[in-house]
Predict the structure.
Amino acid sequence: MAWVTQTLSSSLGRKVIMSLTGLFLSSFLIIHMAGNLQLFKGDNGRAFNEYTYFMTHNPLIITISYLLYTSILAHALMAYVLTRHNQASRPVKYAYSRPEANSPWPSRNMGILGTVLLLFIVIHMRTFWYEMHFGSVPMAEYDGQQYKDLYAVVKEAFSQWWYVLLYVISMAAVGFHMAHGFQSGFQSLGIRHTKYTPMIEFVGRYFFALIIPVAFAAMPIYVFLQVHGII
Amino acid sequence: MKVNLKVWRQKNSNTAGKLVEYQLDSISPEMSFLEMFDVLNGELTKKGEEIIAFDHDCREGICGSCSMYINGRAHGPQTGATTCQLHMRSFNDGDTIVVEPWRSRAFPVIKDLMVDRSAFDRVIQAGGYVSVNTGSARDANETPIPRNIADEAMDAAQCIACGACVAACKNASAMLYVAAKVSHLAVLPQGQAESVARAERMVAQMDAEGFGACSFTGACSVECPKSISLDHIARLNREYLGAKLTSTNVQG
Ligand code: HEM
Ligand code: FES
């Protein structure tokens, strides 16, 4: 098995880990965004709470969620290992350098963007995931069945302007991370082709870097405006 | 034209260096960047000062030795060219020009602007040989190679091992260089026999030399004097992963 550990700790193997975990997290963004669209239903959270119940009780979803936690940890850990290694590869920095002349900003700042994402994920999970699993969430009753009213927690959180702002900034970070990351993840796996790379770049740029973060950012803004009676 | 230079001066690999300022008053815009350094070194000699060490050989963009990081870019502001192909007309009268050596753990500074790029040679050596027929001469076109494949191989084979990819990369990664060297053999029938071992060994040597990993910023390809495409980096990833999954080398 020496070859497995050796391969995964080579510079190319580490990027394969980054890529597989990163692309898995990208696929999760789609599901998470689509599911949370229930917040826009205007039914005082019933559809959202029923969806939350499904997500926390379906065995397949529960299994995937453990894979997800592992992926976040592995991605962040590998980001740290790679960043340290990459910095060590240039012990003496240039006195004057103009990287903006040859490469886009997000591609050079994936570590900073990722750190913002990691902080966001921690805060986000503390507010919702932790409350849902270990906190005290009020109950709601639909058709005689009891549901945890996570919607109430969402409403409370998003009624604070600074919390909404935190989400909007973090979603900008998601956008920039994906603008570079999505297409880069395919290259790390060696997938580059005249036919498919333009499609991958298109999906990365417009779907993952634009539509997804905008849709996510719209949720706290919508709830905020609703709670405060503005819409 | 007049130029103000800030040039990295460093006695040897064990001492710390610093930027030193020089003024040149009568530089022709038609001079190459290296000729401007010749003029400067001439003046330093007259003054009895030690001349600035820099690498150069062909002065026509083919040997890859003229490594200089000029005004924040590998080989200066032009793309698709080496330092010897850069002319003073690319600058304005009175410009300040900062000149530094390549910065990478794998390329230690020998003196002033000269760096030791032998890490590249060791990567090539690790790649090993290509089996060839040493019997009687073979017929022309006995091995059919479509034109587009030949072009693809040639694009990669244009690499002059100048090190601009490493110098420009934020990670000081040698991926474009190693990719070019693996790629030009990987696409040709002649390169197939050893392709698995070649990818494994060259990547292992690249890592052992202390280069960084690839973040696909694309800086290498932009600064490459031969504009070698990122396509080759993806191919290296493919070759390496394929090699790791299929080779019989269980030791790693
Ligand atoms: C929603 C969460 C996230 C998603 C969807 C995501 C996705 C991706 C993808 C697809 C890549 C490209 C991988 C490649 O180039 O092979 C990537 C790269 C990267 N990610 Fe993330 N990521 C997320 C969170 C994070 C976090 C929390 C961190 C850091 C703590 C992080 C740090 C990085 C870094 C540093 C890279 C670049 C690695 C390199 O090219 O050297 N990411 N990410
Ligand atoms: S001196 Fe040979 S490439 Fe510049």
In short: The domain at 118-246 of chain B is CATH 1.10.1060.10 (Fumarate Reductase Iron-sulfur Protein; Chain B, domain 2).
